[in-house]
Amino acid sequence: MQHGNHTSKGIVSWPEDERPRERLLSRGAQALTDAELVAILIRVGFKGTSAVELGRQLLQQFGSLRVMVEAPVIALLDVKGLKGAKAAQLLAAMEIARRVAIPTKRSQLVIKSTVAAAEYLRDRMRGISEEHFRVLYLNRRNALLDDALIAQGSVDAVRPPLRTIVARALQVNASALIAAHNHPSGAANASESDRLLTQDLIAACRPIGLKLLDHVVVGEEATFSFADSGLLDELELLCMAPATSTRQQRIATLPELMPERPL
């Protein structure tokens, strides 16, 4: 929607029927543009720039609404006119949307297959500009007990603490877990460090009878499943075998993909 010649003035100077907040209340949120919805969250712009203009600039800079609201705090704070409180409001709004998408009673969500796990995690993690490492904790029925963000940071810098993962499992009385992390670059493939981490996690879970059901890598358009690829089974066998002379020898060649399997 165009706002005439007063776009650089404060929104309070606009005719009431053109103000985003008033239009939202009278016509509904669906009547507003992305920039206007962002303007309501950030509330005010800065000298010479209205909140709507700032919202439009944010969308242009990040390329899309999804990328903007999932950007790391430092990227939002680098935008002129976007102070800490405004950035926090945008991040909070996106997190509310994420949590609304999760069942109120997590025990109602039963993850019955590798495909179901991948779909859930793709919705949870796709489009995030930082690397996140999450763990889904399941009971014996594969009902979701907890969905925990274990670590986050720059690409290749995220090393989730195995002790924290195992301790959380004991706290929620989990019988199994599914690990997942995203690749902000968009590629859904398993790196050597991903395989090493998976093998270490299998070894950490084994002494307490905790089963690692899968490790899912989330890309922009696809996901990679250690379970479906057969790599998880190979790593489990390696964990039971005597230690080799170098850690490199512990990593198996990636086999051909196998069909979806139940968890």
Topology:
Elements: H1 20-27, H2 34-42, H3 51-62, H4 65-69, H5 73-77, H6 84-100, H7 114-125, E1 131-138, E2 144-153, H8 162-172, E3 176-182, H9 192-205, E4 211-218, E5 223-225, H10 226-229, H11 231-240
Parallel strand pairs: 3-4
Antiparallel strand pairs: 1-2, 1-3, 4-5
Helix pairs in contact: 2-3, 9-11
Quick summary:
This protein has 263 residues and is an alpha+beta fold. It has helices at 20-27, 34-42, 51-62, 65-69, 73-77, 84-100, 114-125, 162-172, 192-205, 226-229, 231-240; strands at residues 131-138, 144-153, 176-182, 211-218, 223-225.
Tally of strands: 5
Globular, elongated, flat, extended or rod-shaped: what is the shape?
Answer: elongated
Uncertain segments: 244-258
The N- and C-terminal alpha carbons lie at a distance of 49 Å
* SSE sequence, one letter per element: HHHHHHHEEHEHEEHH
Quick check: average pLDDT? 80
Number of helices: 11
Strand order in space, largest sheet: 2-1-3-4-5
What structural category do the secondary elements indicate?
Answer: alpha+beta
CA-atom Rg in angstroms: 23 Å
Hey, roughly how much beta strand do the residues contain?
5-15%
Largest sheet: 5 strands, mixed
Question: Which features does this protein show?
Answer:
263 residues, alpha+beta, five-stranded mixed beta sheet, 41% helix, elongated
